[in-house]
Amino acid sequence: MNHHCILVGSPVDSGQSNPGCLMGPASYRVAGLASTLEELGCTVDDRGDVALRALDVASSANPAVHHLTETVAWTKALAGAAEEAMNAGFPVFLGGDHSLSLGTVAGVAAHAKKQARPLFVLWLDAHSDFHTPMTTRSGNLHGTPMAYIAGLDGFDAFPPFPDPVPTDRICLFGIRSVDTDERSALRANGITPVDMRELDERGFVAPLSGFLDQVRAANGLLHVSLDVDFLDPSIAPAVGTTVPGGATFREAHLVMELLHESGLVSSLDLVELNPFLDERGRTARLMVDLTASLMGRKVFDRVNRSI
């Protein structure tokens, strides 16, 4: 894992209906993300927040869709910033709502294509985010990134995705809220999410390790997108889309430690943090601690012993 961390603030608030995610990047900085990474031996380049350029008006045939012009603009701006950051080190994209991944993963995919390496995506989320702008009923575009990444139709207002990720390289992990339209689309595209029922039955290690084995065998790059609502709202209240039954503190840290030990992660989204809904910064601090686990922080070093 590359330990030159590039922090890219992504103050996106256009993809959903609960204002506040634009304060996420500042909250991560106040919670000490940079100093935490430096304590782990990483070098940190904080590139500040991405800013929008001139907006080209975009429209959709679906009247429910809102803030399309801004979301398309964010997608273009973040794709460029992400590709530049991938060339320089290990990007950590500080969100911002999950529509930012329309841009960040596009930039990561462009980099992977130039490197002639397959891109894999691990989506740690309560939701599958597999709508298109044509199927969303809420009009919230933070529910569309995975469909864009997989190359589905319906994204005419957006730049073509640089290199759509085949569905066998996508792992939707921790899912527990999927609507009827998304369920049909997932089945049609051959995606079976690793939902909380499966994690309750099998545990977290086996499904995640199986996916990581695929990444390793293909010499792939691995983008991880961590949504606050992957976590149970009892430990992470600062999100506008709370769904009970998420990952516990221990389970979430286990996932991060397994990812670190794999050495496969090449980029990271931290999304949907809404500081306006937080309790004295507890969610921001937890997300920083999880990032630290991903980058190598442990309670103690484990020694493998033969039995």
Task: Give a structural overview.
There is one protein chain. The chain has helices at residues 24-30, 33-39, 68-88, 101-114, 145-149, 180-188, 196-202, 205-217, 249-262, 282-294; strands at residues 4-10, 43-49, 90-95, 119-124, 170-175, 194-195, 221-227, 265-271. The chain has a single domain (4-294), classed as 3-Layer(aba) Sandwich (Arginase, Chain A). An 8-stranded parallel sheet has the order 2-1-3-8-7-4-5-6, sandwiched between helices. Helix content is 36%, strand content 16%. It is an alpha/beta fold.
Structure summarized in a few sentences:
With 307 residues, this protein is α/β, with parallel strands linked by helices.
Give a quick account of the main beta sheet: strands, pairing sense, barrel closure. 8 strands, parallel
Described by the principal axes of the CA atoms, the overall outline is globular
Q: What is the ordering of alpha helices and beta strands? A: EHHEHEHEHEHEHHEHEH
Indicate the CATH architecture.
3-Layer(aba) Sandwich
- Structurally, the number of domains stands at 1
Distance between the ends:
30 Å
Give the mean pLDDT: 95
Q: Determine the CATH topology.
A: Arginase, Chain A
